[in-house]
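Long-time lurker, first post.

We've been arguing in lab meeting about whether pyridoxal-5'-phosphate would sit comfortably in this protein at all. Half the group thinks yes, half thinks no, and nobody has a model to point at. So I'm putting the question to the forum: if I give you the sequence and the SMILES, can you give me back a predicted structure of the complex? Inputs are below. Any interpretation is welcome too.
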Amino acid sequence: MSRYQHMFARLNDANQGAFVPFVMLGDPDKQTSFEIIKTLVESGADALELGIPYSDPIADGPTIQKASIRALNNKITPADCFEVIKQIRAQFPDVPIGLLLYSNLVIKRGLTEFYQAASDAGVDSILIADVPLREAQRFIDVAKNTSIDQILLAPPNASDETLAEIGAKSAGYTYLLGRAGVTGAETAANIPADELIAKLTQYKVAPPLLGFGISKPEQVKEAIKAGAAGAISGSATVNIIAENLDDQKAMLEKLASFVTEMKAATQK
Amino acid sequence: MNHLNSKFGEYGGMYVPELLIPALDQLEQAFIDAQNDPSFIEEFNGLLKDYAGRPTSMTLTKNLVSNPNVKLYLKREDLLHGGAHKTNQVLGQAILTKRMGKTEVIAETGAGQHGVATALACALMGLKARIYMGAKDVERQAPNVFRMRLMGAEVIPVNAGSGTLKDAVNEAMRDWSATYDKAHYLLGTAAGPHPFPTIVREFHRMIGEETRAQIMEKEGRLPDAVVACVGGGSNAIGMFADFIDEPSVKLIGVEPAGKGIHTPDHGAAICTGSKGVLHGAYSYIMQDSDGQIEESYSVSAGLDYPAVGPQHAHLHDIGRAEYAAVTDEEALNAFQLLARKEGIIPALESSHALAHALNMADEADKETIIVVNLSGRGDKDLAHVYNILGEQK
Ligand SMILES: Cc1ncc(COP(=O)(O)O)c(C=O)c1O
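Top reply:
Settle the argument with this. Predicted structure of the protein with pyridoxal-5'-phosphate, as tokens:
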């Protein structure tokens, strides 16, 4: 069983959904980034979604763009990111770790080489924000060969055809988009329609985690009530980092209480 | 499934968030339907003729070339309404916008030429335009910002990243991913995700078709070479498209070498040869060893873009087109030369193509006919060139 399967089984037994925070690796620097991620797990994060900073993040709103810029200004490279992941993996052998990044970082390094490096660092899944299903097959093939789950994304406007394809190809979990647009806490997620959740079940997609526009415990509760297997919160988490850059202690404390509250909302 | 081929060899594709796929599919379908609809063709051709001023003329230069073997012609896109070739394809996409039942248009612009073309088309067609422009470019191109606003477009400065064209494209794509229901993204060059490179080529291909007819009338034969500058690649692919299957016609694209292609300050994606994904397409791009996109540079804002349209990458790899690079200095010389010798002030972008053609003309040892696509006029560049030449003197 993969770490995701273990996690979903454990949560199922506990009658809970998953809470998965997202942060940018290397934001604002390597050491602080490690402390941040450690805090997230120790405060109750069920899994991690981690970004690799990129110069041109077209699926991200201002909050996550700025996180990328902070890290890039500190000369954080993909190699640095893998180092941070290795440290986290050494300390937390069971927490599922997902990467969320952009295609050019993978293509430049070479698909197999990149996925192998990720796998060696302890990564469980990879989601590429600018690789839609239509371009995904060669990434899925490499993922299979390197023991990585390729995460597919189900948008709210997905056709039946798309959902069927996701069902046939998804592994790990399915990233269920809460709304159109780019990442950001400014515009709230819509709670998925029963109809969509029913279709996801019908097409047997990997467990859906709802993301984009999740910043409050009530949203986590509602998402899980609507049938999502959990919720992902990116910009709200990153905002806490951005607002406390000059006081690391306060930053970690606020992150801890945020994660604790969000996790508490996953109890069914 | 795509109905049209989304790739050119290994290049192109649709590297965009899943959310945008339905919007791109809708656009592809609208384009296919339009191409098969005589009423679309009639409307498009009518606007091109009566509003934009097509066909544009073809001018044989009189004093520019001293080599008696050479005839150098200029395809006069500078005479098109709006001042550059950009107007052609914008009119086409504006009609598609209406046919898709959308009422808003999103566009990006660097120098402001595509923004101006978008603004004029939207004013004409009653569409609401919002145009993303890097904050640095908003400052550098103040007259074009005023033009766009005069014609009713909203100009939105983009502070993210480097505050130039690539960031404006990013922001336009972000906007579109939330607003595709009522807004069309009117991309300004033959780059970006499928179907843009194909649509933009087809809506500019009259440049090459007219060139063929005009040169046949004047010379009774095809030219030996057609030369065009390459930013994203729209004026070049418009000039090339009708000649791709004519092996006797050399296709030559000219990239901006800026301060030299061995310095970091250039925009010559093909000539420096690194492949990757930017703005939805796999092509030649400028990047560092990790795949982070690098800033481009050129004296001409319209060529200051760190990628190139995917069909050019393919034409390069199969050897059908050649790509050269011309420095700021060579382009500025050609700019002044054309003004002095022929009484035509070209855009700095087009001056790159001209500079390369002049080098070819010097070297020709047999009878040679060259056509340069004079993609735009230089009015927009006057203040910029004035400042540079003032500094030099
Ligand atoms: C006059 C002119 N020529 C050329 C270009 C470059 O674009 P493309 O390579 O798409 O023709 C521009 C872009 O702004 C332009 O204004």
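For your lab meeting: DSSP finds 15 helices and 14 strands in chain B. The two ends of chain B are 59 Å apart (CA to CA). Whichever side wins, do check it experimentally.
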